[in-house]
Amino acid sequence: xxxxxxxxxxxxxxxxxxxxxxxxxxxxxxxxxxxxxxxxxxxxxxxxxxxxxxxxxxxxxxxxxxxxxxxxxxxxxxxxxxxxxxxxxxxxxxxxxxxxxxxxxxxxxxxxxxxxxxxxxxxxxxxxxxxxxxxxxxxxxxxxxxxxxxxxxxxxxxxxxxxxxxxxxxxxxxxxxxxxxxx
Length: 183
Prior knowledge:
Shape: globular
Strand content: 5-15%
Structural class: alpha/beta
Helix content: 40-55%
Number of helices: 7
Strand order of the largest sheet: 2-1-3-4-5
Distance between the termini: 58 Å
Oligomer: single chain
Radius of gyration: 18 Å
């Protein structure tokens, strides 16, 4: 099966796709040695850009969406790595973090790519950005499990719309009980 990854350069996930017998689709063939011919054909609006963006979209986002549109139509599954937490302390040096998890480049293009993947009817795995070694190992285990089964949409880390874990919330009755107790 063809699997896409958002962000495209999440090198921690790419070898797992190929190890599990699937094909990694990349607009830049980032996992290959010859990545010079990334933009074959004419640069023009296609249905993907017309559907998800206005004509005033900045050219950088248009370019990223154009490259993304080259692979999204062939995708059978997707893996989305959540955004880096605000309080993130690097596990490794900055170069290793960039190589392992990739950068989402432009937040607007990244958000549009996630929206496009959400609208597709393909199995999707959404994972939180790992903050420590245990979470990194869990990320690898969850990815391998998803790639072995490839069914349905999975959000084991409870990511919200902003691709950050949603904190546990109390019910209204619990909040009322706490307020009544202390006020």
